[in-house]
Design brief:
mainly alpha; two-stranded antiparallel ribbon; binds 3-hydroxybutanoyl-coenzyme A
Length: 310
Amino acid sequence: AQAAHEAAFDAAVAAEERIEPRDWMPDAYRASLVRQIAQHAHSEIIGMQPEANWITRAPTLRRKAILMAKVQDEAGHGLYLYSAAETLGTSRDELLDKLHAGRQKYSSIFNYPTLTWADVGAIGWLVDGAAITNQVPLCRCSYGPYARAMVRICKEESFHQRQGYESLLALSKGTPEQHAMAQDAVDRWWWPSLMMFGPPDGESAHSAQSMAWKIKRHSNDELRQRFVDICVPQAQALGLTLPDPDLRWNEERGHYDFGPIDWTEFWDVLKGNGPCNEQRLDRRRQAHEEGAWVREAAAAYAAKHGEARA
Ligand code: 3HC
């Protein structure tokens, strides 16, 4: 029976069919999806912190309203993704416990500080831009609930990217001080944004299997290159430079060549030694404790009214 299940699963993946929660799937496929979807969800909720840092200090009511909407969207993305992970038989509590205990990751990018208002624009343009480049292919992921969550998230991510780009453009065309602030933010966020796509293909532990299962549709380096090719003309339109002297168009390749990434920094941040790792997890644990009363109230209400746990 196991062999029959495996053959049916392999045939479904090969035929570009969606695997759904009630379908048989290899344990390793299930485990890798829980790993990736959980860490994707963790990234969304931790990602609220660097931006929320500027909500009370946004320069205008319009910028404040846009930023609040974006931070609320990120929370919603986290909830979609935790729900997608729960369809694989894991619980949200379990995933959050692993995050709080440092046993599951979140995207390295959120371990950097947001030092000025321009960082909010740089995050929208670069971080959400990178997220879109990574997430559009995931709309074709073989696991149904994850792919469908991505379709909705990508629509909202596009707004996040556009508002960031527009905010940076306003600063770039503003006073010399505003232009300098936008350039400084791009200088600090460019290389960490390239690291969001993961280690080089040769050092990617999961890529081969993830691509065989059609979870990952393009390699880390392929999407990183796609992102660089998108950003170079956008930086020119912004009147800002990218902090890479090796960046240049390569006619034969049909892509931009770019300089070496500091992978020591990448692995260091993953090990927990980034500028904000401790602060992000402390804040996350504190937020979880502060929210305990809401969970208890919801559970009491559900128990009293006999509904299945919400
Ligand atoms: N930050 C933290 N960990 C990373 C990472 C990064 N930038 N890149 C890779 N890793 C981890 C992997 O999770 C894996 O560790 P694990 O075994 O403990 O999970 C290890 O480094 C080796 O990397 P691999 O390339 O072998 O791992 P994957 O095949 O999973 O590829 C990935 C990494 C491309 C990030 C893939 O997991 C993925 O596409 N994830 C979904 C997208 C995602 O998580 N995006 C977060 C971006 S932030 C965001 O979306 C918020 C936005 O709205 C602002």
